[in-house]
Design brief:
single chain, 146 residues, 8 strands, rod-shaped
Length: 146
């Protein structure tokens, strides 16, 4: 199955999971009340549906996040693929309320902690402590020999 493309995957943080999704056409008529969103990012999501979604089509959606939060908005189909059991598509967000956009950003963004920088600092601190301990041991050994 396709995605938004390798460039988009590198640019946008994603969360993988199965999120309940309701799809409506652009006029508000139901397309699929039991669709599933996968691979959610700030830019959009992957859709698994019984409704055929054609590239370029606009739709409205209501997506449920794990925390029970609802996100609603408008999107565009950027790719689609039919399999034996369902239709798959990529939906690109076009419009959402500011609060919903923040909820998506919060859900898809890391905690804000730069774990690599934190690990580098921890290694530096441990190295300094080790050097101090070794220095202390060497000084003690030198003092005992005198």
């Amino acid at each position: 199955m396709r995605g938004f493309g390798s460039d988009d995957r590198r640019r946008a943080a994603r969360i993988f999971g199965d999120f309940p999704l309701i799809l409506l056409d652009d006029d508000g008529a139901p397309l699929d009340a039991r669709a599933t969103a996968h691979d959610l990012s700030e830019r959009g999501f992957k859709i698994e549906s019984c409704a055929e979604l054609k590239p370029g089509a606009f739709f409205r959606f209501s997506l449920s996040l794990d925390a029970g939060e609802q996100i609603e908005g408008r999107a565009r189909v950027v790719w689609s693929e039919k399999t034996e059991l369902s239709f798959w598509a990529g939906g690109e967000f076009l419009g959402m309320a500011a609060g919903d956009r923040r909820r998506v950003r919060r859900a898809t963004s890391p905690s804000g902690v730069d774990w690599d920088a934190l690990a580098d600092k921890a290694i530096l601190v441990l190295s300094v402590l080790l050097a101090l301990v070794v220095g202390r041991i060497l000084l003690s050994a030198t003092s005992l020999r005198r």
